[in-house]
Fold this protein.
Amino acid sequence: MTREPPLALLAEITHRCPLQCPYCSNPVELVRAGAELATADWQRLIDEAAALGILQIHFSGGEPMVRTDLAQLVGHARAAGLYTNLITSGVLLDATKMEALARAGLDHVQISIQDSDPAGSDLISAYPGALPKKRQAALLVGEAGLALTINAVVHRQNLDRVGDMIAFAEEVEAQRIEIAHVQYYGWALKNRDFLMPTLAQLDAATALVERERARLGGRLVIDYVIPDYYARKPKACMGGWGRRFLNVSPEGKVLPCHAAETITSLAFATYPERSLADIWADDPAFAAFRGTDWMPETCKSCDRREIDWGGCRCQALALTGEAGAIDPACERSPRHDELFDLARAASLAEPVVRAWRRMGGKS
Ligand code: FES
């Protein structure tokens, strides 16, 4: 059977990062610099991605700007016909680097912010002075004529300032802001009590986002999805397992999503030991939750089975111990009510960081 090609490749070219956010989406066991794929490997992988029919590449990390070959890789991807996006914290982006990246053909930049308040930003990133650097980086992106998205990761410690984060995106003339609630696996699962918002915080933020959408009228697009723990329906995580995305880790593991390695019952193929096309076509880890055949009966018989594709497998594992279980974010899951209780308890617990994101996976 010929399989539809993936839409996008998330290239996590490094796990090195000067920030230590306690909700980082990288695995708890971070890959060290010495194990990263070399420039030539990434270039071959990019060529294979283009040949496979992939349209977009997202350079991510860690902080992708710590790799000195970033502009070279961007240029290579652009020459291969891919739309290129850089996902960065912005703290290492200066005028010289911006010029090199623009010259290489970079199309879009996504800059994450930890908070609109400098002290809150310093606290979460453990990187003093991060926010002014990010503002400067965002302005450089605009001056270079590139498209800009601000990515604001929200949680209990900053959700009350969501309006100020939207104002930040307006001030730096971004075209889009993604207000992304923390996802609870990996680092964030360890720090759930610190990060889980209360329901009252969430309701206030959701109402404010609606008002801001009306005020902005599309001048600044706001992407906003409520967090799974307070949702009634699961999200179509990654647009469905093995349907739209490939994620490649710094050492070349080819994964259906950035958190897939938390599912330790699956073995993941490594590039360049297998080609990208082979992995996409028939790797058992990709096949494990692809489509609808794997689903429990409740999901298989649900009208939304090809809308949410069964939700998030990493979350199902984190909450039930079984990656193939119904995602508890779904109101049809027998564990759904527990999830709400869990969220409520975490949101009222003492807000302590149990693990900062550091090499070695230790707090
Ligand atoms: Fe892995 Fe959702 S993060 S399936």
User: Anything to note?
Assistant: Residues 237-238, 241, 257, 259-260, 312-315 surround FE2/S2 (inorganic) cluster (CB under 6 Å).
